[in-house]
């Protein structure tokens, strides 16, 4: 759909979006659109509609901000669209914040745009568009568990184990000897086994085959209320910690169930973790450590001899509705990563 554009005001820039990625995480932005405020970020012009956000790269093609010349490239959060007008504030040589009045309600990191000193690198840009928000979640979630001595767990159970965020967590815990058990759907079991980052893999129906006498940390990526109840009823007081990270199988914020045995779930939100690093002046040092480890992870992911994931490149946005339908109904092959190239048509 084409929308008319109005001329830029002083203090605004217009970006042309180069590349964005879509995974189930984007579906969760829609699911939590009202509760976390994602719908505020790119308001839809038509009532009853919302603009689903996506991570990617863009180039400033018009600028009325003296410190940001045209040709500047940025990484950040964009609508699934070709262009976006923004109002940069807090401009430094490394980043700016979109200070447009409607960009409220969500953690601050969603409004932060990183200026890219280098030109496009399609392969690496695709991998980062796909994984930056996911792997930073895996990484900070592993940090969060490490800082709490893994709740002295004897095993980790990770649901939606085929998701990129889940196997990122398993990867980040690879130096921890505690077994990492992946829980997945039957159709994705062989994919998850092939990753090699889980010590054992069970399908959801086999949950009760996992040893319930071991102290267990549950890392919940599925957000499925029924599975959640089954996990609590299986591990009961051996559930040392219940960490809600994702909602791949849910179309609403998971319900709080007061009557469950074991600890209450704790919602882990990477964006708030990053905001707290920023508030403490630690974001830069965190990012240095993170970027080094992200590079190692991405090389492993895309290792051509035995890739964990293959890039699926789409030209333009024509395929986006079909990709979104597949992500929404869970039929997407987890071995693919969908990226949309909006400029080389
Ligand atoms: N808390 C945070 O800060 C944070 C940050 C980033 C991401 N996340 C969350 O992490 C989750 C994973 O995101 P991702 O982008 O990594 O996922 P992904 O790589 O696209 O993985 C998709 C997997 O999710 C499951 N799934 C997806 N849709 C389904 C459906 N309709 N029915 C049944 N199963 C479905 C399947 O796994 P199985 O067959 O293995 O179940 C599927 O292979 C999302 O909910 C995302 O929002 C949270």
Automatic annotation (TrEMBL):
It comes from the Bacteria. SUPFAM superfamilies: GroES-like (SSF50129). InterPro entries: DUF2855, GroES-like_sf. This is DUF2855 domain-containing protein. The lineage of its organism: Bacteria, Bacillati, Actinomycetota, Actinomycetes, Mycobacteriales.
């Amino acid at each position: 759909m084409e929308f008319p554009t109005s001329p830029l005001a002083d203090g605004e820039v217009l970006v042309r979006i180069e590349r964005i990625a879509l995974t189930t995480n984007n579906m969760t932005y829609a699911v939590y659109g009202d509760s976390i405020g994602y719908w505020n970020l790119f308001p839809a012009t038509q009532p009853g509609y919302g603009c689903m956000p996506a991570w990617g790269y863009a180039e400033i093609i018009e600028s009325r901000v003296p410190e940001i010349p045209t040709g500047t490239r940025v990484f950040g959060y964009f609508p699934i669209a070709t262009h976006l007008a923004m109002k940069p504030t807090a401009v430094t040589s490394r980043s700016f914040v979109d200070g447009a009045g409607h960009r409220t309600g969500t953690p601050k990191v969603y409004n932060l745009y990183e200026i890219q000193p280098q030109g496009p690198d399609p392969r690496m840009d695709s991998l980062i568009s796909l994984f930056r928000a996911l792997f930073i979640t895996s990484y900070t979630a592993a940090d969060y568990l490490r800082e709490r001595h893994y709740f002295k767990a004897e095993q980790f159970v990770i649901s939606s184990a085929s998701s990129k965020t889940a196997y990122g967590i398993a990867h980040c815990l690879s130096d921890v000897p505690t077994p990492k058990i992946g829980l997945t759907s039957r159709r994705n079991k062989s994919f998850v086994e092939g990753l090699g980052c889980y010590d054992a893999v069970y399908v959801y129906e086999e949950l009760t085959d996992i040893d319930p006498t071991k102290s267990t940390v549950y890392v919940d990526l599925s957000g499925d209320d029924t599975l959640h109840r089954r996990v609590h009823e299986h591990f009961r007081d051996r559930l040392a910690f219940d960490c809600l990270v994702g909602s791949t199988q849910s179309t609403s914020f998971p319900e709080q169930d007061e009557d469950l045995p074991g600890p209450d779930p704790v919602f882990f939100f990477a964006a708030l973790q990053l905001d707290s690093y920023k508030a403490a002046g630690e974001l830069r040092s965190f990012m240095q450590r993170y970027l080094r480890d992200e590079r190692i992870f991405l090389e492993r992911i895309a290792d051509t001899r035995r890739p964990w994931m293959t890039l699926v490149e789409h030209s333009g946005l024509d395929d986006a509705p079909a990709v979104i339908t597949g992500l929404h109904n869970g039929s997407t092959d987890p071995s693919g990563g969908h990226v949309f190239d909006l400029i080389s048509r």
